[in-house]
Structure formats: structure tokens, C-alpha cells
Amino acid sequence: MEREIFETRFKVRSYECDSYGHVNNAVYLNYLEYGRMEALEAMGITLERLKREAGALVVIRRIDIEYFWPATMGETLVVKTYVKEGRRSSGIFRQEIYREPDGKKIAAADVTWVFVDLEGRPIAIPQMVREAFRL
Amino acid sequence: MEREIFETRFKVRSYECDSYGHVNNAVYLNYLEYGRMEALEAMGITLERLKREAGALVVIRRIDIEYFWPATMGETLVVKTYVKEGRRSSGIFRQEIYREPDGKKIAAADVTWVFVDLEGRPIAIPQMVREAFRL
Amino acid sequence: MEREIFETRFKVRSYECDSYGHVNNAVYLNYLEYGRMEALEAMGITLERLKREAGALVVIRRIDIEYFWPATMGETLVVKTYVKEGRRSSGIFRQEIYREPDGKKIAAADVTWVFVDLEGRPIAIPQMVREAFRL
Amino acid sequence: MEREIFETRFKVRSYECDSYGHVNNAVYLNYLEYGRMEALEAMGITLERLKREAGALVVIRRIDIEYFWPATMGETLVVKTYVKEGRRSSGIFRQEIYREPDGKKIAAADVTWVFVDLEGRPIAIPQMVREAFRL
Hints:
Four copies of one chain form a homotetramer.
Chain A: E1 6-11, H1 25-42, H2 47-54, E2 57-67, E3 76-86, E4 90-100, E5 105-116, H3 127-133
Antiparallel strand pairs in A: 1-3, 2-5, 3-4, 4-5
């Protein structure tokens, strides 16, 4: 079975860069979050809908990110996102960031998430998510 | 009658600076927000309590900020906050940012806010706020 | 003579929103900066080139922003940017933010900037900028 | 030999929280950076001095962060930072974030860094850093 890979494109903005002229390390986590939200939305899923229809919140448990090459202002980046692993209530998104058009690898991360109810207790991955990502 | 002036002190952090090594212009609005929250909290008021007890949200309508001198990493700043003007449902905070210990003026702003109910309609300033700031 | 208006489009990202679910007030200043950089770039001008070829830095002196309506995650916004006024070394950008596709006005700002040399002294607006914006 | 542990205390600010009312995941990386800068500064080392005296830049290669419990607005946090491992040109900072006064563990990270010269090539850890952290 093939994994679906979602791509999110955007340009690095001036205010995202630090005094070295490089994208700040924390900003890459913003990019990853943006990529995950776009992946969910492409499947018709929003945080709002998850909360309302399934009483579910997504919580990030761990992010392991490697930085390969700094991105700088004005560059176009693409975040590639796919579900690498899914268990009962948790899973791992693999996300890689590339520069365009030369394909230089900028960063890559494993993002571990878990679904919890409104009291913070782990719950089974909502059906709409299982179907969307074929988990 | 004297106006009470609230002071909030903090150090400029590395990730708040841009490629010129200066605090990014938008970050000063974060500092101002931090100063306002601390001023409210010093009076025993939180956004949570305003919402729960008075069904009130504070919305910012306008910010007019002047930048006098750039702040850089590691410098200690103080935000001075006071209520400059209060009307029925709105008012203006005056906020000035100084560098310590030399007192160099960094920025100054007039921040216009309004209280609204949960549907977004203007409402009278909640009593707890009137009392706290003697409006 | 007609004024050229530059448009920059983008989507509101999840991490730009606060606990009310609205774009944080400071983030709009990031959007404005992004709009100005894109306007400059559309004219072939970058901060790097200004520094290298004209020994010039652009410094923001004042931002007067009005907030009309909150933007929320996933909405598409457009920043419209034009030069409202130009003097010897300074000028004012007018920038307005609209929601698409309904055209709801979200925010509007006057941004006063000045060109300075590497020691921070005001200098005449560089020729490349005068030509680009017909000042 | 004992490891020296550096502690940096601060309060969570309103604009650092997301629509769940929790500190945004990326913001923790800002906190970690702040903690590292304060640890360096406590030893008399700044990025500026490293660049000027040793021609050295510090680059982050990897951050592996676990999130245990969400922090919310107004809470006081402490970042504990120490050098876990040092090699020829690289090393690992261990950083843990706790809530005060109850000591609840919020997050913990291994941060891998490397020293490079102004062209980006790995170089030996500068002597001032070796001495400061007894590497």
C-alpha cells in the first residue's frame, strides 16, 4: 500500500530569520505544524471538527528534528508530510523540509502525537482520522 | 488624583532579534501585551476571570507605536503601563519602553481597547476593571 | 499619476492564533513586514542589495495600526501595500489587510520608515527606491 | 567531577499560548535557546565574542524534545541546562523544563550543537568554551 505524501509550499519571511540571517530553529517547528494542519485539512479534518465531533484533541508528545542546512529569507520551502506509524491512540508523522527548486534537504523530523479527550486521557484515534490516513 | 504606573522588567532574548541584531518591530507588541497582562494581574484580574465573571473579552482596536531606539539581545527593558483615558466601554493604555539602567527611551505606544461580550458587542467596562484602574 | 498597489496573499497559520482563536495582534505586524518585503522584491530591491549598493538600512519609526475584525486560522488574507507619502529620507507606507474572498477589512496601518546609513544617520532615499516607487 | 547546572527562570507570557491555552510547541525551543544563552552568558561567553575572538559560530544540528505536560499563561518555569557530552567540535546540551513551585516536569530535550567557522566548516570547540564547561 502506498503512503500518501502531503506537500505544503511557502516562502521564508524576513521576520522568521535570526541575526545570522538564518531561519530560527524554533520557526521550523512552526513550519512543521503548518504542514500537518494543511495535511489534515486536505483530508477535510480540522482541530475544531475533531473537538466537536469526536471530543478529541491532538497533543504532541515528542519532536526529534535534525537540521541539515539553514534556510534564508525569500527561499521557497516545501514541507513533505506523511504518517509513518499509527498505533491505537498515537502515531508518528514523518516530515521533511526541502528548498526549491534545487531540492536541498533543510531539515527532517519525526513528530509523535497522541489523541486525548477533553480531560487529557488518551483515546483511540478518531475514525475520521483513521480513514483519512488509512491507519 | 495620581495615576498608578505598572512596571514590567525583562531581558531581550536572542530569538526576538532580527538580522540587524535588533528586536523585531512586531516583538515590541508582544512586550506591550506582556506589560498589560502583568498590570491586570497586579490588580487581581485575568482574562479568564473577566470571561467567567463578567462575560467580557478585551479587544485591541488600535495601536500607535513609535520606535525611538533599537533594543538588542541581553539588554534589560522596562515597560511602563498606565491607563491614560477611560470611556464607557473603551479606553487607552499608554505604554513606554525604556532600557535599563541608562533610561534610554526605546518605544512608546497608545493602545486603544474595548470590552465586548462573547458575541463581540461593546459592553460597559466591567466593574472589577473600573475599580482596579479607578476609571 | 497612479499609485502602484502591491498585493501579497497568504493563509493564516494555526500557530499565529491566540487563546481566543484569533490572530495575535503582534502577528499582523509580521504580515505587514512580509507585505513590504514582497513589494520591495517585486521592484527588484532587497535589504541585502540596499545595504551593499547604497550603504542604506531601512528603519521603522512608527506604526499606527487599526484592527477592524479578527482573522482566524485557515483564512486567506491579502495585504495591499503602497507608498502614501515620500519625503527626503523618510516616507509612509499605507497597508491594508483584507480577508478573501469576501473582502472583509481586517486591519489597516500607516507605517513610517526612514533610510539611515550604517551608523544610523538619516540619509536621502536611495535612487533605486525613488525610481521603483516613483518618489 | 560534578556537572554544573544552569537555571533560567521566567513566566509564561500570554502571546506564547495557542488556542488550547497551552504554550505552543515551537515556543519551548525559544525557551531552550534562552536557557542556553543565559548559561553561556553566565560563563562570560556571548555569540558576538565567539565570532570576534574565535571566528566561531554555534549551529544546532538536532533537537530531540519530549513534551510531558502543557504549561499555561502566568506559570513560572525554570529551564535547567547542562553539557551532557562534548566531543571535538560538537556536543550535547541536556535541557529540562520544570514548573514552579510544584516541580512538575514540562519538557526535556537533548540539543546537539557543533562549532563551525565563518564558512560553515566544523572546527574544534573554542578554548573559552572548553574551559567554561570543563570539556
